[in-house]
Design brief:
The complex is a heterodimer of chains A (130) and B (418).
Chain A lengths: L8 E7 H4 L4 E6 L2 E8 L2 E6 L14 E8 L9 E12 L6 E3 L18 E4 L2 E6 L1
Antiparallel strand pairs in A: 1-9, 2-3, 3-4, 5-6, 6-7, 8-9
Chain B lengths: L10 E4 L8 H4 L1 H10 L6 E6 L6 H5 L5 H12 L39 H13 L3 E5 L12 H19 L6 E6 L5 H11 L5 E7 L12 H10 L3 E4 L15 H22 L2 H4 L5 E4 L5 H15 L11 H5 L3 E3 L8 H10 L2 H4 E2 L13 H4 L6 H16 L10 H7 L5
Parallel strand pairs in B: 2-3, 3-4, 4-5, 5-6, 6-7, 7-8, 8-9
Bound molecules: FE2/S2 (inorganic) cluster.
């Protein structure tokens, strides 16, 4: 959580083939905590610090996004439903939900996770840490 | 730049936080916040909760009425389980947001042999959040004011008070409690006040606000006089009741919860003031628990406005309602903080520097860490210290010698789990 500003460095955290067997892996790297997520062919990494109250946002559950079904022709709503194609990161402290791919809160687009640059280099997942 | 290959010892995988995670792991970030911001503060948490359903068999066993004890034990063994005799509606209890917030209803792992699981969990939460004292309230029992059988409220109140005061509090000097008053039966409340007025670890008396009693009714006059005489505060702890006809219009837990927790305390404060109770019981210290803060300036303005125009309906009042309200005490959680200007104005009008008491509500879903206070940009350091602990020390006569371990020591026992 205490992240002293240092020169950016690239850190290989493991082989993509191994890591992606899970949807999410949370790593402590020299005291910096990062959640790395795999969804289809996409990879994302987010700082494990919630913008709400500093909770360990990446160590909660990941869930399907909840949607309100609305019939555009009538404006009627048959109620809530789950979009199983998108995944939300749920902060375990108070339930803020962030889109796994964009890091944006489900309702308030101003509330976002802080990204960690991530790439695949020679089959390894590489994070750029500040 | 070639990627650095850190050796394995410097990369560690962190586990998911779930219902069986150790409290110290769930709250490790709060411990880091304590180390950074308030390690040397005296901190009192006025409102944390027992998940009494986990220990319900221990409570039921202490019911003194033989018929109700037998009924409770029978229900406990069969269909009602841990909700025996209670009036909560499990199917409407959405606090965990479908299991997303896992500390609601959590169970503590790795409880050392011979220790009570609740005390172990509470001690770990105090250490992790940097609390010197924690004051505990029940959870499911907060709805008992709406129970159709008054005698059940009395029996459970008496049993729960015994369980708390005789079994739990002696196990840790940092734990304190309010005695639950079964307010639907004033005589039973009077008996409990007489019984516990001098109990060392009982720091006050509490009424669960979720009920339809008019709190200014004369049937409570003797009770208030007795509590006033004890010198201990009277806390109204708010709650929800989705079955209330007004709230039955609301189709989501979020909206029902947002409105009902403020609704009950607004009604009780309104009745308290318009009936001139502060003038009739001037030394009775009133504390309003778990309604957040945003309702306070609303009600101050609203009542001032009405009373100025209709003084003939409030002839016992000698000052404006807002002036009486600024002399009452309030707990902080769930502290609305999406608009700092409004929060700053709220804290100013309610005299937060002397009247506000930090509360966590841990382990409930909408809990607040002490950092909600230390992170406020407009408070002085003295105001933060007052709200986090010194106001409580004054109200409850607590010794302000530090009781908690330092954050570094807590982190050293469970390094880097979150
Ligand atoms: S700290 Fe993440 S939701 Fe509150």
């Amino acid at each position: 959580m205490t992240e002293a500003p240092t020169a950016p460095r690239q850190v290989s955290v493991g082989a993509l083939a191994t890591l992606r067997t899970k949807e999410r892996v949370v790593l402590d790297i020299d005291g910096q905590s990062v959640g790395v997520y795999f969804l289809g062919d996409e990879i994302r990494a987010w700082h494990n610090v919630c913008p709400h109250s500093g909770g360990p946002v990446c160590q909660g559950k990941t869930v399907a996004r909840t949607l309100q079904a609305i019939d555009p022709a009538t404006g009627k709503s048959p109620g809530l439903t789950l979009d199983r194609s998108s995944r939300m990161i749920v902060c375990p402290w108070h339930g803020f939900e962030f889109d796994l791919l964009t890091g944006v809160h489900a309702v308030d687009t101003k509330t976002r996770l802080r990204p960690v640059p991530v790439a695949v280099v020679d089959g390894d997942v590489v994070l750029t840490l500040g | 730049m070639r990627p650095t290959q850190l050796d394995k010892a410097r990369i560690r995988e962190l586990e998911e936080i779930g219902t069986r995670s150790d409290t110290r792991d769930v709250l490790a970030r709060a411990t880091m916040q304590a180390r950074r911001d308030y390690d040397d503060y005296f901190v009192v948490d006025i409102d944390a909760h027992v998940s009494e359903d986990h220990f319900w068999g221990e409570v039921i066993e202490l019911i003194d009425n033989e018929y109700l004890r037998d009924l409770g034990q029978s229900q406990l063994r069969s269909f009602a389980g841990n909700n025996a005799l209670l009036n909560i509606v499990p199917g409407l209890s959405h606090q965990s947001v479908g299991g997303r917030i896992t500390h609601q209803g959590r169970r503590e792992p790795d409880v050392p042999q011979g220790e009570h699981p609740f005390v172990v969990a509470a001690r770990r939460s105090m250490d992790a959040m940097g609390l010197d004292y924690q004051i505990v309230f029940p959870s499911a029992m907060l709805l008992l004011g709406m129970h159709p059988q008054d005698e059940v409220e009395v029996a459970l109140a008496r049993a729960f008070n015994r369980w708390t005061v005789e079994r739990i509090l002696p196990m840790d000097e940092r734990l304190k409690a309010f005695v639950y008053l079964p307010f639907n039966t004033p005589e039973a409340c009077e008996t409990l006040v007489a019984q516990y007025a001098d109990a060392k670890d009982v720091i006050g008396f509490t009424v669960c606000s979720t009920r339809n009693n008019a709190i200014h009714a004369d049937c409570y006059a003797r009770l208030y006089a007795m509590i006033e005489e004890s010198g201990k505060p009277l806390a109204f702890h708010s709650g929800y009741h989705w079955g209330d006809p007004s709230f039955a219009q609301l189709n989501r837990f979020a909206t029902m919860h947002a409105l009902s927790f403020t609704h009950y305390n607004q009604i009780h404060v309104s009745n308290w003031l318009i009936n001139a109770m502060p003038e009739r019981f001037p030394k009775l210290k009133m504390l309003w628990v778990e309604s957040g803060l945003a309702w306070i300036p609303f009600l101050m303005q609203r009542l001032d406005h009405e009373v100025l125009m209709r003084p003939s309906e409030a002839p016992g009042m000698k000052r404006l309602p807002s002036e009486y309200m600024a002399e009452m005490w309030y707990t902080s959680q769930p502290m609305e903080r999406t608009n700092m200007e409004l929060l700053e104005a709220t804290m100013k009008v309610m005299k937060a520097e002397t009247q506000l008491l930090y509360s966590s509500d841990w382990p409930h879903w909408d809990w607040d860490a002490p950092s909600v206070i230390t992170s406020l940009p407009f408070l002085s350091e003295q105001a933060k210290r007052n709200i986090l602990g010194l106001n409580a020390a004054r109200l409850f006569n607590l010794d302000i010698k530090p009781k908690k371990p330092r954050a570094d020591a807590v982190l050293a026992t469970r390094p880097g789990r979150s």
